[in-house]
Structure formats: C-alpha cells, structure tokens
Amino acid sequence: MNAFFYALVFYFRPMGRRGRKKVQLTLENIHLFDAGGKGKAVGKTEEGQVVLVTGAIPGDTVDVRITKKKKAYLEGKTTQITAFSEDRTEPVCKHFGDCGGCKWQQMEYTKQLFYKQKEVSNNLKFIGKTTPVVTEEILGSKDIYNYRNKMEYSFSAKKWLTDAQIKSDEEIDSRNGLGLHIAGAWDKVLHLDECHLQHAPANDIRNTIYEFAIANSISFYDPREKHGFLRTLMIRTSLSGEIMVLFQFFEDQPKWTEALLYHVAQKFPEVSSLLYMINKKGNDTIYDQEVIVFKGEDHINEIMSSYYGDQTLKFRIGPKSFYQTNPAQAFSLYKKALDFGEITDQDLVFDLYTGTGTIALFLAKKAKKIVGVESVPEAIADAKLNAEVNKINNAEFVVGDMKDVFNDAFIAEHGQPDVVFTDPPRDGMHKNVVEQLLKLSPPKIVYVSCNSATQARDIELMSEKYTLEKSCAVDMFPHTHHIENVVLLKLKEIK
Description:
CATH 2.40.50.1070, globular, alpha/beta
C-alpha cells in the first residue's frame, strides 16, 4: 500500500432543492513535520499539497479525515496516529482531546517554545518583510500549569457529549453542564470536572457551584431557546491571594440569586469579591452591564514587583478590567519592554492601549512623564486609582478610542514623545494610529503584541520610517499556540 494512500468515500446527501454532493476524503500515513497557524500540525501529501491537521503534533504520522479543501491546502482531523513523535508527553488533564483549551499539552514544553519562536520569526520575515537586528531567546514561563488569573466558564442546558460518552453505555442523567465552549461552536459547552489552568481553589469553586445548582434544580441557560437562569461564571485570582467570583444570570430570580451566592460565600470565605449581574441580552459581554456586589469589594488587588525590585506595585482589578492573564510572567514581559525602551528621566513616554495602566506604572519611575490612553472608562478609572495607590504622580491617563483620541490635538496638549509603548488587541493597531505614529515619528517605538502576524503587518506599514532593531518572544500561554512578542522600532536617520 502506498504510504500516502487515498481512501475516497463518496456519498450523497440532499441539501435543499439542489441536493449537493459531499465528498469525504481520508489520507493515510501523513507525516507531520511542522506547526502551523492556530496550533495545527503541518504535513504534505505525496503530490506536495499542504495538509493542516488537528489532534496531533509535529513528528507524528497520522491518518487524516479531510474537513476542508482549499486551492493551496487541505484541513483535517486526526483519526489515527500510526507513529508517535519523539516530542510527545503525557497530557495531565482528563479532558484533553475533548477540550480545546490546551491543544499542545501532549508536546514537550521546550518544543512548544521552539515552534512559537519559529512562528514569530516567520511572521516578521514574510509579513513584516524584515528581520530584527537582534532576536533574543524566547522567554519561557516558569509555571506551565495553574498560571492563569482569570477563567470564564459557561453554563449550558445542553452540554456537549464526548465521543466516549456517546459510544458508551453511560446513562446521562442531566444535560446541564458548566465548562468551556467547544472551539468554533458558540452554543456547545464541555462540562469540566477539572481544569489545570488556574490554581486552587478555582476547581473547587466551580464544582461546588455546579453541584449546588444540580441539587437544587436551578435552571441552566439555553443559548438557542434563550431561557434559563445560570449563564456564565468568571473566577479571578491574584498573586496577593484575593479571589473574585462573578455570575451572569439571564433571568431575575431573587430566590435563586440569594441562595446560590449565600452558599458560595459560606463555602468559600476567602472570596473577597462576590459579584453578579443580570444580563438579558443576546450576547454575554459584560462591559455595558451593571455589576452588583453581594459580598466584599467590587475589585481585587494584583501585585507586581517594580522594575528595580524596590517596590511592590498594586493594581486594582475590577470585573471589566484587562490584566495579563499570566501575572507572574507579565513581569518578564514588561521588564523586557522597558529594557528595549531604554528610558531616561528626561523622557516623555506615551503608553497606547494602557488598560489599567500596568505598563505605564511599571515604567513610570524611570520616565519624566508618562501618558496612557485606553478606550474602556472603567479601566482608566482603575489606572488613575492605581497611580494614586502606588504614589506615582508623573502618570496621566486619558480615556477614548485610540483611533479618535490619538490625533494632532492630543499631541498639542501632551507634547512630542521620546518613546512610545503600544500594546494593542489581537487585531493590531488601527490604520489611523499607524498613520499618526508615522506623522509623529518618535525616536523609539516599543510594540508589545499578542498576535505577531498583525504586529508584523503594522511593522511593514511603518517600515518607510522605522527599522526593526530587536525582537523577543515571551510565552504567556503554555500549552497553547499563543505567544506574546516585544519589538523595538527605531526611527531611521535622514540622509
């Protein structure tokens, strides 16, 4: 049998009035030699066509059921591993394979770092059309499990049934579940008994809530039918030991609200911020919702050592605040960014997309003045309070959408910066922000990104005026394909 034997199975399924033909294709013995976008492994057919595969890692040889056909490549799912990679390790989580949260758990961590660094380098080269003068060694995370300080879970009246459950004789007493969404399925939730992303007592809190809800016949939300009481659960922890629990309820049911929250408060007295909201919208975004305090404060406090290690910075984190989800590794990320910036006490610094002011306050002691900009009013309020708490008086924070606020009037009011730090969302910087930076032409730009592809795109857009001097990847998300990257851009000399 040929090593790349193609087993073609044709079947017909009526679709509407036309009755389209669907082709199911299985490829045998595909050797995977690289990692591609979104954590997929890469192989090739005998004819040289690229195959992107889920459910396996580079080094595996697999049989693949093709789910998508494109001109340039095929996509598919592993049906059988015929030869195992030398880089495999045993996943620690019982839900691995069903839950898509940690797709690289079966890969040695050193190899995860290798492929993350490779992805960053390729994006800078092929999308950014440049390479840095200096590429520093990727900074791995000290903790590769239990590193997240925030997890968001969903309740579901129709939990996802795994293949093992479907094939077994297991009697499913209840379809209610509390866990994470199946990748690509907004209405499918995998119930979790354990999760290794957040440290204790996160698992106990989640499981206790689930057990109480089942025992008391409290209704779970059905996103298709749009009814049910329990909608989402957020658990935030901090290095200071504080814990926040936030419920979203779809219905206003005072009896269930009181009973559930009182139970959590009694079982977990260490929870310092117990909150809820009633969200009857079609989506579960919380930024436009009123947060109600049931017990404790409306926030928790995160801590981080200062750049010099001579001060412990405190950050007020509310339910709507953004803060790096790997707080221990955030120090490494911000320190690298500050090292790249080489700030002096004479420098005016802009911090774009400042969030709760973490980068701004981390570097404020080294700068003459720093101005942070953020679109979320609650985050700016927290940033101002964080500055006050940490006795930092050379930081100013402005609220507004970056593409609108960061303009000529802003520069006229705040001055010409010596260094600009920017840490935009995954989509990268808006074109208006890029244009304003080019117009402003600060001597140095330090660009922190959670998406090296959009970062590389923005670097290419600024390449007429800026040279990519340094790059350093920082792993904030072990066992996932996600990677942060810090670059230093320097203004080109006018010849």
